[in-house]
Specification:
Layout lengths: L7 E3 L1 H6 L5 E5 L10 H9 L2 H4 L4 E6 L4 H13 L2 E7 L8 H8 L3 E5 L5 H14 L4 E3 L7 H19 L7 E8 L3 H13 L4 E7 L4 H18 L12 E4 L12 H14 L8 H15 L5 E7 L9
Length: about 325
């Protein structure tokens, strides 16, 4: 599904504006399939041919502007599968952004009032599909499973190969990435732990969950993937990893003054489009870090752009 490797792009103008000359973006917004983003890497594993053999319907859930739902619906369209999405709320008036794309790809929408109702509704829809003679595959929210983690374990290896090829004299890399369900960060932790890369410092910026909760989820997912899928053990604690929740603001998908500034800075100084739910808040955390701490002569900074541009147009 994905166009790989995604590029590692220097951002000299933005870096200069932030006082960090060695600033890069890992452009997973350009994974390609169905307008790209980080969900493509994870769904490559979760929807691999052995997983969908004999399946007639894909069922998953997310917010009304879910990137995960967008990519799942597009996969179903390409492979001639029925797709049912359970979303908490829907657009008022004509759908826009990801909500429009989900419908364009032919997905059927089941709307619940809030996020807490999604799991139970997915279960009841599964039973309805089975009763109707369908063979559904339930795709967990965000594809944040041990299997889905493998997509970002591979991405961590890819990123390390790219930074190792840079001739900039740096011996340490700081990486900022957005997160909600934890699968992307867990995969990065898994890949970095397998490589024993203690020189890569990972900051996970939460879109909703408390930092301590995100930290536990990510490390547990990474360990589960190592033990149950790769049949090996890792020490997630060797990876320098910190969860950040100070950019959540008033909640999931609600912009903040800092995220709006980040969107404008990345647009004007780098020609990069951020989304209001994930990447703008991760970028705001990166900006705050560079303004507050800067980077040392031996360091470079990488922004992992996880995509989601349709959300900006909602």
């Amino acid at each position: 599904m994905a166009n790989l490797p995604t590029p590692l792009v220097p951002l000299p103008r933005l870096g200069h504006a932030l006082g960090a000359g060695r600033l890069w973006a890992k452009m997973d917004a350009e994974t390609g399939f169905a307008l790209g983003g980080n969900k493509v890497r994870k769904l490559e594993y979760v929807l691999a041919p052995p997983m969908v053999d004999g399946i007639t319907c894909l069922l998953t859930a997310g917010g009304p502007q879910s990137n995960h739902c967008r990519v799942t619906a597009a996969f179903a369209a390409r492979h001639g599968l029925r797709c049912v999405l359970v979303t908490n709320g829907g657009p008022e008036g004509d759908p826009t952004g990801n909500a429009l794309l989900q419908r364009l790809f032919g997905a059927e929408l089941v709307v619940v009032e809030n996020r807490s109702e999604r799991a139970a509704r997915m279960e009841s829809v599964t039973q309805e599909l089975l009763a109707a003679g369908e063979t559904p595959l339930v795709v967990p929210i965000g594809a944040s499973t041990p299997l889905g983690c493998l997509g970002y374990a591979s991405a961590a290896i890819e990123l390390c190969e790219q930074i190792d090829a840079l001739d900039d004299g740096c011996t340490e890399t700081i990486v900022f990435s957005a997160s909600s369900s934890g699968g992307t960060l867990a995969g990065l932790i898994l890949g970095l732990a397998l490589l024993e890369r203690t020189d890569v410092h990972l900051f996970g910026v939460s879109a909703d969950a408390p930092a301590d909760e995100l930290d536990v989820v990510c490390r547990r997912l990474a360990q589960d993937a190592a033990v149950n899928l790769l049949e090996t053990t890792i020490d997630p604690e060797i990876v320098p990893f910190k969860s950040i929740d100070d950019q959540v603001g008033d909640g999931y998908g609600v912009p903040t003054p800092e995220s709006r500034e980040a969107t404008e800075l990345f647009g004007r100084q780098a020609g990069i489009v951020l989304d209001p739910t994930y990447t703008s808040k991760a970028a705001a955390a990166l900006i705050a870090h560079l303004r507050g701490h800067g980077i040392h002569d031996h360091q470079r900074c990488v922004f992992l752009h996880t995509g989601g541009a349709p959300g900006l147009l909602a």
